[in-house]
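pipeline stage [seq->struct] | target=Enoyl reductase (ER) domain-containing protein | organism=Vitis vinifera | residues=339
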Amino acid sequence: TVKTHIDGSSPQESDFELKTAALHLSVEPGSKDVIVKNLYVSIDPYQINRMKRVCSSQKLVSTADGITPGQAISANGIGRVMASGNPEFEKDDLVVGLINWEEYTIVKGGNTFRKLDPMGFPLSYHLGVLGLSGLTAYGGFFEVCKPKKGEKVFVSAACGSVGNLVGQYAKLFGCHVVGCAGTKQKVELLKGKLGFDDAFNYKEEADLKSTLKRYFPDGIDIYFDNVGGKMLEASVANMNPFGRIAVCGIISEYTGIGERVAPDMIDIVYKRLKVQGFLVIDYLKGMDDFISTMSNHLSTDKIHVLEDISQGVESIPSAFVGLFRGDNVGKKVVKVADE
Ligand code: NDP
């Protein structure tokens, strides 16, 4: 649980508390509850927005409800059914969907998840490359950015869960891709294993507008934005006419400690840029097609899987806090229990 709301600062491990409670592995007769033993939970930046006070009163920050301090924190995850009053689920079923950052979750009515067929892939893939991170990258890149072969694509937080996949899809599609990330090791990974055409460490760059000019002498056609702030400002300045910007997330602004910078709006007018925000839920109806395409890519080694797994429920606070320090390389998940 989170002890209090976290407003306008980077989260700290001390903001969190691990609580224990007795659990009976049986459901009340007549109820449709399902008791799930949690195996993997997803660690996502957007949770910080749910922890802000404003989110508990007016759903301004996210489509997800605010998190009440002291209560379990819901999150996407994978688990095994231990007991079920819901005829849709049986003991030992694997499920994926909304559970909590905890070891066991009692899901009231058992309707926040679906049965999971792992299709021979590691379970954690179903939170990342075959799960919502992958769908975010896929929907955002293909539906929002509407790429054309040969176009110049820039991705921020490129070594993160969504970013690394956007870059890989863009390469597969035939685009020229440059990513930025916050360490030398990540930059090497992007240029090496992940096949980006180029990459740079944004923390070593003093003037992002001229950095982007250097990497994109002919301008950017597509910017997939995971960070907002100064990087968005610099990208708009370097976009080509009729360029597209997919605003997936603005992590540099979630903690409220960065300067708030706005892009030059007149650039958007004169260059006729399209700037579109989106949510992964917009693409859920395409999930089955997405999984089938992506499992083919995985089976033929077209996509390199980048995931970063911590062990044990007690590692959740540091895993989460680490997202805002750039500790993670790829999809961050916590393995809560053995399968
Ligand atoms: P990541 O795996 O990318 O983890 C976050 C990364 O962001 C860190 O590793 C770090 O990498 C980078 N970062 C952290 N703080 C800053 C900062 N101040 N400035 C620049 N970069 C920073 O997370 P996800 O892939 O899960 O999410 C990426 C973005 O996509 C987030 O903004 C998230 O909210 C959004 N998102 C949106 C969805 C939607 O439906 N629209 C769905 C899922 C995610 P580095 O080393 O590069 O600094």
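stage status: PASS
auto-comment: The chain has a mean pLDDT of 94. The chain is about 25% helix and 25% strand.
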